[in-house]
């Protein structure tokens, strides 16, 4: 069984925390709590206000929207580039989507009351978090377009690329059932799309473990949505730090 690589806890493995000034980081560090985030763990339920803002370092969190009929679809992905709980500094309180850990790992959390207080002070930290929120909104909008107009094959490539950008390797743990749930499509469609990628030598898939063999081909087979989202993120935020192997 594949066991994901676990990196030593370090707040600066999260790109937003790494972008803080030395003075701001020193002020935040006493309140940053290291947390282990387990697969399937719900960080915030839909319709509720987050208790914590969570900054993933090695974990990946899916923001999922569910329907009254029980269907669901991922609207955005948050990893070491961002934070879960943007409603805490946007003033909205509750959020309409669920935040659930899609790939186990580590992160840091700040109590809601503390980050709300910190945001009232404004300044560069608030500006950075608002820019991140804009990039997250762009990802949500592009995901909606992708789910409406692009094939399952293209959607799967886009989703794999989003996952790769948030891990320190070319490997992902993702079952076909999970991929289908995240994309809001039938499992048969994901099975067919994954089979095509494997036959083409782009990925190797076995028992819920995906190894990407040819990222360039994966990007070529994806729709424009991945590149558009990445370009907007890179425009708004500092360049990602190099991850430790």
From TrEMBL:
Query: Where do transmembrane segments lie in this chain?
Result: none
Q: Where is the HTH crp-type domain?
A: 150-216
Keywords of this entry: DNA-binding, Transcription, Transcription regulation
Matching entries from InterPro entries are given as:
cNMP-bd_dom, cNMP-bd_dom_sf, HTH_CRP, RmlC-like_jellyroll, WH_DNA-bd_sf
Q: What is this protein called?
A: CRP-like cAMP-binding protein
Q: Which organism is it from?
A: Rhodoferax ferrireducens
């Amino acid at each position: 069984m594949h066991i994901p690589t676990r990196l030593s806890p370090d707040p600066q493995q999260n790109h937003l925390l790494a972008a803080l000034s030395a003075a701001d980081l020193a002020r935040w560090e006493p309140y940053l709590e290291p947390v282990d985030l387990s697969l399937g763990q719900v960080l915030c339920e839909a319709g509720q206000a987050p208790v914590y803002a969570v900054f993933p370092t090695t974990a990946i969190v899916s923001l999922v929207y569910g329907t009254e009929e029980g269907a669901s679809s991922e609207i955005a992905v948050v990893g070491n580039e961002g934070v879960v709980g943007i409603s805490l500094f946007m003033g909205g309180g509750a959020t309409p989507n669920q935040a659930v850990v899609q790939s186990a790992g580590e992160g840091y959390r700040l109590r809601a009351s503390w980050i709300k207080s910190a945001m009232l002070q404004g300044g560069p930290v608030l500006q950075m978090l608002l820019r991140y929120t804009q990039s997250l909104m762009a990802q949500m909008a592009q995901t909606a377009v992708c789910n409406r107009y692009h094939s399952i094959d293209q959607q799967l490539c886009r989703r794999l690329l989003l996952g790769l950008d948030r891990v320190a390797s070319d490997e992902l743990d993702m079952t076909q059932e999970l991929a289908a749930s995240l994309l809001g499509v039938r499992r048969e469609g994901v099975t067919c799309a994954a089979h095509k990628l494997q036959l083409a030598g782009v990925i190797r898939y076995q028992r819920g473990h995906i190894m990407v063999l040819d990222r360039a081909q994966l990007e070529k087979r994806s729709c424009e949505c991945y590149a558009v989202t990445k370009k907007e993120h890179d425009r708004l935020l500092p360049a990602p730090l190099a991850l430790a192997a």
